Amino acid sequence: MTNDGAPKSRLELVMEKLRQQDEAKGITQVSLTDAQREAIAAAKKQYEARVAQRRIMHQTAVSGTFDPAAIMEREEELRRDLARFEREHEETLAGIRRGE
Question: What domain of life does the native source organism fall in (predicted)?
């Protein structure tokens, strides 16, 4: 039963069980501050903007190219850049969550 007397949903029961398992393992749940939430939102917007800009640049470069080898090279560059952006984004988020 919840605080208001209504029965718990399956989701609530599962979440409660997972919290109990985490507590047994010594894992504590840390709430984010408002500043951290804002920083995460800003980092997400910046990441999405970088990805969009890179995709536009890629489309521009590929649209004027007819050589399959050059197109494959541009595709590989795009994949590398997107992977780097993702890695940097995850590092930024981890730093924000740690309070850095």
Answer: Bacteria
Task: Tell me the residue length of the chain.
Answer: 100
pLDDT per position as a tens digit, 8-23: 889 999 989 988 888 8
Q: How far is CA 42 from the centre of its chain?
A: 12
What is the pTM for the complete model shown?
0.72
Joined tokens for residue 30: 């840390």
Claim to verify: residue 46 and residue 60 sit in the same structural domain: yes
Residues 37 and 79 in one domain: yes
26 with 37, same domain: the answer is no
Determine whether 87 is exposed, middle or buried from the number of CB atoms within 10 Å of its CB (0-12, 13-18, 19+). Answer: exposed
Residues 6+ apart with CB under 8 A from 65: 71, 74
